[in-house]
Design a protein that fits this description.
The chain has 336 residues and is an alpha/beta fold. It has eleven helices and eight strands. Strands 1, 2, 3, 4, 5, 6, 7 and 8 form an eight-stranded mixed sheet that branches. α1 (2-14) runs antiparallel to α10 (248-270), α3 (46-62) packs antiparallel against α4 and α4 (71-84) packs across α5 (93-115). The radius of gyration is 19 Å and the shape is globular.
Length: 336
């Protein structure tokens, strides 16, 4: 529970996000309002996002994924209805939270469609067929059982899509959630969504055990543990249910400080998981209304922490390639 405890302490700094979230009177938002992603993956309007979401839905349908009457279809319909009334209604704060998180989850599907469109591995298609399942609202999802399978699958493929966006070779030809190939090394990626800080260590060690199995089976040389804390971020942000607006620069800085404090703790506590697990990835999304522009905005972090640092030249080299690829992909996005 050491990592979970340290993470809980770091969330105190992340709690500054709550203090900087403020309720504002609803803006006169219309369908042309800009949608921004803090990683600079801009969308020109709600119409652009919804159009891309519909294209992703059509792609899923062609691959045999059930879309109609699923949470994806309901989320798209909900956002479309919300947007059509933005000029004439004043949604309650809870409405804003609901729709902002729906936008974030729709974006997951768009990223999967964008970056994994050409993959046809049987394992990939099997996981893809799960991503539309589950309750429409993240807040209605349980912490175990069938209700979590859809979002678990979405995170697995979002993680793969993020590596693919970085220009890395991604495949689904083993029992690993995904496999990334770097310099002739096959790296098993095992993904875990974390629903409480206390469970973080357990999830990390579960993933490490899975990576060891992939290596023993000859399917990988080493592995990466990817963890999503978006549900924890949701819980923190909704402690102030009226606080759906904030300053992008301040929020981004608070989030950066939280990760900078947490990173060394991860490396110190879990460095012993190397050489099987060479790195840990910490991912979260935080959607909110930019109080400066009134635009729906989303912080999306994919932080990479090496678990072998200066001790194994080969693993250090793999981590350096991984770091550079992920960093360059963000810089490219900022310049697009």
């Amino acid at each position: 529970a050491k990592t979970g405890h340290a993470f809980g302490i770091c969330m105190v700094s992340f709690g500054a996000l709550r203090l900087r979230l403020r309720r504002r009177l609803p803006w006169a938002l219309g369908p042309k309002t800009m949608l921004h992603n803090a990683s600079k993956l801009h969308r020109n309007s709600y119409e652009d996002l919804l159009a891309e979401a519909e294209q992703a839905s059509e792609w899923l349908t062609r691959l045999g994924v059930r879309v109609n009457a699923t949470r994806l279809a309901l989320q798209i319909r909900s956002i479309r209805k919300w947007v059509s009334h933005l000029d004439i209604s004043q949604p309650t704060p809870n409405d804003y939270w609901t729709h902002l998180w729906q936008l974030a989850e729709i974006d997951d599907v768009i990223q999967i469609s964008r970056n994994l469109r050409d993959i046809r591995d049987t394992r990939f298609l099997s996981t893809l067929k799960k991503i539309t399942s589950g309750p429409t609202l993240l807040s209605n999802e349980g912490n175990q059982g069938g209700s979590i399978q859809g979002r678990n699958a979405s995170f697995e493929l979002f993680t793969a899509a993020r590596f693919a966006r970085a220009g890395l070779s991604v495949s689904f030809d083993s029992d690993a959630d995904a496999t990334v190939s770097i310099e002739n090394a096959r790296i098993a990626v095992e993904c875990k969504r974390v629903t409480s800080a206390d469970a973080l260590d357990d999830r990390i060690r579960e993933a490490h055990a899975q990576i060891k199995k992939r290596i023993q089976a000859g399917h990988a040389n080493c592995g990466i543990i990817a963890t999503s804390i978006s549900k924890l971020v949701l819980q923190v942000s909704q402690e102030r249910p009226q606080g759906y607006a904030g300053n992008l620069e301040q929020l981004a800085n608070d989030a950066k400080l939280m990760l900078e404090r947490f990173g060394p703790v991860v490396q110190e506590i879990h460095g012993g998981l190397a050489p099987e697990a060479i790195a840990l990835v910490l991912h979260y999304k935080l959607p909110f209304i930019d109080s400066t522009t009134g635009s729906p905005t989303m912080l999306s972090r994919f932080a990479h922490y090496p678990l072998s640092f200066g001790e194994n030249e080969r693993l250090d080299n793999l981590n350096e390639v991984l770091r550079k690829a992920l960093t360059l992909s963000v810089h490219r996005a900022k310049n697009e």
